[in-house]
From TrEMBL:
InterPro entries named among the record's database cross-references: AKR (IPR020471), Aldo-Keto_reductase (IPR050791), Aldo/ket_reductase_CS (IPR018170), NAD(P)_OxRdtase_dom_sf (IPR036812), NADP_OxRdtase_dom (IPR023210)
GO annotation, cellular component aspect: cytoplasm
Chain ranges of the NADP-dependent oxidoreductase domain: 51-348
Descriptive protein name: NADP-dependent oxidoreductase domain-containing protein
Keywords: NADP, Oxidoreductase
Native source species: Citrus sinensis
GO MF assignments: oxidoreductase activity
KW Signal (keyword) present: no
Keyword check for Oxidoreductase: yes
Lineage per the UniProt record: Eukaryota, Viridiplantae, Streptophyta, Embryophyta, Tracheophyta
Amino acid sequence: MAFSSSTTPTVAYFSCFNTFNEISSPLFKPPKLPLFWPWEKVKMGPLSASPMGFGTWAWGNQFLWGYQESMDSQLQQTFNLAVENGINLFDTADSYGTGRLNGKSEKLLGKFISEIPGQKQVQNNIVIATKFAAYPWRLTPGQFVNACRASLARLQIEQIGIGQLHWSTANYAPPQELALWNGLVAMYEKGLVRAVGVSNYGPNQLVKIHDYLTARGVPLCSAQVQFSLLSMGENQLEIKNICDSLGIRLISYSPLGLGMLTGKYTPSKLPRGPRALLFRQILPGLKPLLRSLKEIAERRGKTIPQVAINWCICKGTIPIPGVKSVKQVEENLGALGWRLSSDELLELEYAALESPQRMIQNIFQTR
């Protein structure tokens, strides 16, 4: 195929695909375009991550998410589909998994990574962000290093992408906080993690730990916080501003509000288990927001969850919606490859402010 001198290389490149689509032969399949291009990956310290990651809180959690070991093959298909579509960021924690299944999420991730079909390069490209619980018996940096080594063993990898503190103890055990911070420093200096991050840190504690780590020569790579159209209060926006000013990447957990922003539930149609109590309290006050999400989704040819996740991406965060089925991965992948307009962002944020209910914040969230 020849191009005229007036056609730019970029236009010519995409013109090829337009031509391909016009070919009617059933034997010819046009090449599949990626959901995002390599230059659209997000930098997090030394790491390069997909614009959206996936959370694995449900993997091993029987109490809230109804996990059963018979689901493992489905979870592996879920993981493989995500990787095949360019997702390389997976968030987990050493406390994920209930009762005897504690640590199950990390174990499953380790198994799935080791069994990825194809090149070793795909495995090496995966970024695991795991969180270490601030259990009351973890009182020294050495105990956090031991926790990190235990996670490495469950994950079957030599180095963790991002080692994160799961929560701060500033609200209830301030003396333990310094041990947490020094534990991160030790993990980093020993080469057990490529980067470090925090979770559930409020603006004040975030600045403090950033300054402390910087003085020790350890860059703070990321901060996880509940951030969504259901959770965009002053605290979240202040954290986002601090992250932007200090070069910290904000990771949005619960971007779908535990499922309340999927459009699948109503006050008369609630999920099973403990979530029903929360949904019954909050859903009735979300009509303006859910209506706006639905209207934009219909105009865009998208689904409500895809619009809600895309909002997080447009705000400069990395959302990590939880997944436990192939269907959820397929739907969430539809949040990539496009962006809401500035008018649509304002429409959604206005509708969120008009909705009287807000998401309940994590009890460990600090100021």
